[in-house]
Write a structure and sequence with these properties.
The structure is a homodimer.
Chain A: H1 2-20, H2 27-38, H3 44-55, H4 64-85, E1 89-90, E2 93-94, H5 96-100, H6 102-121, H7 127-155, H8 162-187, H9 192-219, H10 222-225, H11 231-235, H12 240-247, H13 262-274, H14 277-294, H15 303-315
Antiparallel strand pairs in A: 1-2
Helix pairs in contact in A: 1-3, 1-4, 1-15, 2-6, 3-4, 3-8, 3-15, 4-6, 4-7, 4-8, 7-8, 8-9, 9-14, 12-14, 14-15
Amino acid sequence: MIEEALKIRAGLVDEAIPKFLPITPPDELYYAMRHLLDAGGKRLRPSALLLAAEAVGGRAENMLPAAVAVELVHNFTLIHDDIMDEADIRRGLATVHKKWGVPRAIIAGDALYSKAFEILSCARSEPSQIAESIELLSKTCTDICEGQWMDMNFQIRKDVAEQEYIRMVEKKTAVLFAAAMKIGAILSGANRDVSRALWDFGCRTGVGFQIYDDVIDLITPEEILGKAQGGDIIEGKRTLIVIHALSKGATIDALGKSNATRSEISAALSILKESGSIDYAMNRAVSIVEAGKSALRILPDSEAKSILIGLADYMIERKY
Amino acid sequence: MIEEALKIRAGLVDEAIPKFLPITPPDELYYAMRHLLDAGGKRLRPSALLLAAEAVGGRAENMLPAAVAVELVHNFTLIHDDIMDEADIRRGLATVHKKWGVPRAIIAGDALYSKAFEILSCARSEPSQIAESIELLSKTCTDICEGQWMDMNFQIRKDVAEQEYIRMVEKKTAVLFAAAMKIGAILSGANRDVSRALWDFGCRTGVGFQIYDDVIDLITPEEILGKAQGGDIIEGKRTLIVIHALSKGATIDALGKSNATRSEISAALSILKESGSIDYAMNRAVSIVEAGKSALRILPDSEAKSILIGLADYMIERKY
């Protein structure tokens, strides 16, 4: 039932993307901007925005500009992150910089960024609600940059603490979920407490989502994941799993070793399993998401609220 | 008198930048964002915004958030452009990617981008004026990306026509001048005709500015310019000068030759002088700026209007 409900919202977003981001001259730029968007994706952030709006009595149809804006911001970060990570594959396709080169990928990302604000500023809502949403989205984008910067610093540090990691993940990943939900609430005229509760829900479930995502990156085979298994290991990422294992005195030879073989990656995986670090991260993800769900108590019961609860559970149960 | 008047506005912007963009954690990110900003610069775009506001009866002090936002957008484009152009030096300093590496320079640019919208969304104006300004600034940023994309395409084409070049320059450079002035007008409550006139003035003078800038890149020695002379030639840029020379049948051996020697660049310069292409570009810049100035007829006489006229002249008379 949850998957079906999410699919309906994702379908609305899928339909809206080409309407708000048509191919116009210079066409090739817009093809580059649409490359990852057209490859699909779960549309979790825009779906969360639609559901948040519905949960406070708003109408999903009126939220499509904002929903598309949030998905564009997400895709902009993917394009630039892939350049930084020198990633070749995303969603089973060549990454934008692999296909168009780094300079054009930088521009395609930048253009998605500005289109997001352009589309949001044309939403059918009160100017004050639009101004508030844009302020939130821009602050969120700054947070994402700060989180990405912290993440890069962590890769050259050995002593990252769990709390620092959580703070980084909040900025890099969770605030966009949080902002999506709060924007859905703001544009639907929700009051401050309700908007804030949806932000809290989005932020906590977003952290849980990312911790669980790091687990998935480790344990999911390439043919399902659409990108190389254990990529975070060879990139040297200090995920919660790695932080836990290192704190238990584990030695992970493949960590940060960009030319690690498949068997070295397998050995690293075994060590992370044996140290209990994968289970530890899974449990942390679950408890953080549970805390997020409790923030929704302020909302009256509704179908949308149930789906949001289901979305939170989905975030830590999905297989990829 | 004009230079003094511009210096006063630039000084206001210089003071406002650290207020609106303080160094906060992660500090190093903010140092990277401030690197080019702190190196100075003429602040022409934010000064134009302040003057446009003054010319329609607004107060410069109230426009500082918007002025800083526009300067941040300009600096964001410089950081990303330098990555794409693989430029080492800007304003006499190492470029951001030279100092911090490409991934961090991408983030620093992205963060300036979001800060610009964040600062503009907090301007002390009516929500409807803020929403309109943000819509304009975001559309302008999309235009800049389109212009940059066109510029890159032109470098691998031999048949760029003058009109295409002007269209590219409008998007890549002029629309930010135009938007700066229109935002100054919008936030000061100017009517639609006046706002539009200031946009026209900014767009035309911006095109003139860029054509003249291409001339300066050619004829100014490195020690004054702060970057290598003739960089546009070895990058293969189809500037108006090059387009004119090629249309006259000139052969420019150093064009697009990244390892061209100083004497090859000098030879290219002589050819561009002899073909009359440098004079042609100068004259085009002058006539476009004159057309821009005539757009200001709609405004009542004022000190700010006189300074704007002077700014237009300055754009095609400055030495670097």
